[in-house]
Amino acid sequence: MQLRYSYRVYPTCAQQEALARAFGCARVVFNDGLRIRRQAHEGRLPYVSDADLSKWVITEAKKTAARSWLCEVSAVVLQQALADLNTAYRNFFASLSGKRKGRKVAPPRFRSRKDNRQAIRFTANARFKVLDNGRLRLPKIGDVAVRWSRSLPSEPSSVTVIKDAAGRYFASFVVNTTEEPLPTVDAEVGIDLGLTDFAVLSDGTKVAAPKFLRQAARKLRRLQQDLSRKQRGSANRSKAVVKVARAHARVADTRRDWHHKLSTRIIRDNQAVYVEDLCVTGLGRTRVAKSVYDAGWASFTAMLKYKAARHGRTFAKVNRFAPTSQTCSTCGRIDGPKPLSVRSWTCPCGAVHDRDVNAAINVLAQGRWDNSNACGAQIRPASVPAPRREAGIDPARRVSHAAWESSP
User: What is the pTM of this model?
Assistant: First the structure.
């Protein structure tokens, strides 16, 4: 499987100028290619092929006075900029035809030199090299100092040099790694994600939400106020923008580090991990949007997914419409929806449930049901017919719990 290994790099002033030229040239090539294809579309002309586009905006453009400075950077950087444009168009067309699942993809847009994030990519054809002294040799840029936090597992196939909004530089290597299976364990876990408790496990463990953004809100507010008082276009405003970006980057880095440690511990201790498939986009439109994005559920579940694949664990998402918060994990009775203010409830069977722990247990049961074992063992609470007054909302469409169990 392919993984990315990112490291902080520290280019010199001359190397920063060379990287700035490379960022600008890649952006211009991308915009030129996009402009040609848009003009062809508006003129009802055939779609410009990848080969013709590369010839026009790179090979022929270098011979003109207006684009002669494209020769100052590696040709691979320019080719990869066009490759990004082609990928964007393929994703857009696949989204239009329905071949690409998920949210609709918009057509490519022009890149701006004012974008907070700039990036260029070197492939193996560029002959970049990690030297014995630990420096990264990049064509037409030089030997860049790298802070190696860990060693690369294999030879990288490409490297992406990134400059973020905080002015930091990173080198992101793509490497091919083999699976590193962990020792088999008997434990399995279901996870219910929330805001007060970031994660509630089916064994009763509750992980409190750290709320990194909320903790840094006071400092961010002060920096944002300072930024708003600076005159547009001034040097002081540029410095204030960097200060705000660094504060946000510190929050994001802290959250990412915490996600990594928690996801690694969960994958190491459990053979199978099941998580509810939450609609983060929909929750982002509600009044708790700031807390939802502060939690970072999507990035956390993505870490669980790739770490499970790497270490030979099972990972699956449970249907978001499964009534995990309404079902009694003891008898299987659906007790109906409850407001968020209800944190515990008692089932008519006599079981007293903590709302989140009960939901995590049901997530585990649902995940086992969806990924049923070959032994045919009972992996879910037995179905119990629900009283008529508790089944469904519309009396004309009410179904029993047993019917819900038998539905696909």
Answer: 0.83
